[in-house]
Amino acid sequence: MTSKAHMLRIIFSLNFLLWVFCPTASSAWGFQGHRIVGSIADQLLNPRAKLQVATILGFELRIAGPWADCVKSVVRNDDGTFEYKENPNHPEYEIPCTSFRTSGEQKRMEDYVGRNWTQCVYPPTGQERGCHNTYHFDDIAIERDRFDRGFLGTSEHDLVAAVSAAISVLKDRPATAPFSIADKKEALFMLSHFLGDLHQPLHVAAVYLDTHGHLVDPDAVHRIDPSTDTVGGNNIRDQHTPFHTEWDAIPDDLGEAATPALLSAARSTPPSGGVVEDWPALWASDTVAVAHYAFEGANFKFVSPQHWTVAFDDRNAYLAAQDSIKRRQLAKAGARLAELLNAIWP
Ligand SMILES: [Zn+2]
Prior knowledge:
- Keywords: Disulfide bond, Endonuclease, Glycoprotein, Hydrolase, Metal-binding, Nuclease.
- This protein has helices at residues 3-21, 30-44, 47-57, 61-64, 67-70, 103-115, 159-170, 184-197, 201-204, 218-221, 243-248, 260-267, 279-294, 315-344; strands spanning 74-76, 82-84, 140-141, 205-206, 236-238, 241-242, 298-304, 307-312.
- It is α/β, with parallel strands linked by helices and 346 residues long.
- It has a single domain (29-344), classed as P1 Nuclease, CATH 1.10.575.
- The strands form three sheets. Strands 6-5-8-7 form a four-stranded mixed beta sheet. Strands 1-2 form a two-stranded antiparallel ribbon. The protein has a two-stranded parallel ribbon with strand order 3-4.
- Helix 8 runs antiparallel to helix 14 (315-344).
- The protein is globular, with a radius of gyration of 20 Å.
- 42% of the residues are buried.
- Mean pLDDT is 91; it is low at 1-26.
- The structure holds zinc ion.
- Zinc ion binds next to helix 5 and helix 8.
């Protein structure tokens, strides 16, 4: 083996170990995607909503978008205190977080994590890593055709509930349990991020797989068998990349702000209709429908307990479809973030 091949092999092994022990290190859309969603919304806010965001939040939505991932750097010390600690293995995590490293903002991140740490057990491992981490996703089985609180893979502390709780606070009502939201600024930080997550198909819908790589339907047997849980696609690999991470990555040409094409797509997103309180579930249902396309043509193979690979009938066609779904979903997320804030501050 050449030394280069040897080095590549070591790097691959390290990545594999990281994947095994840190399966949920990824975050929806990466910070670039969250910035794009915020950037679209910044440009679609009405003057009153824009003023409210500037006054209450003090950041553009584009800057605020990654906040809920930045708080993942807050750790619980042995003495029970919470502290923001840079991850020495991942200096890149800091890139979108520099705006929040003033003493006041850092205190807010530590405080938010402390207040939202213990209300639930992080599924599916049961290990303690903070309830606030569950606010970023649902895992509704792909066999379903919509979001419904009665389906498995949802919870009182899931993504839809987090969006609803933040809306409550912006409408001068208390946050629904188990959420602790200090004020409207925190609610805006949450919404600027979670609207993005809500439009990433693998943050809302999931496949559950058996040891043959076949779909199993948890709702049919009224329980999630942990051995079938793909953890939102984190336990499925497409070649060397976790399938979830592949979906988080945005098309390279998009950069970190709204493009004219995305803005135009956002402007043509149909209005949601009905009342604001129903929107989180309505939008999640829309994403479940989109997820059916995200899994179309995907075939799964069992590798080892709780690890699968994915292959496609036509890989190039799949990647092309994935690219256009991502663009549509980013545009919709930005449009709906603005729609929501414009409805709260008409
Ligand atoms: Zn997230």
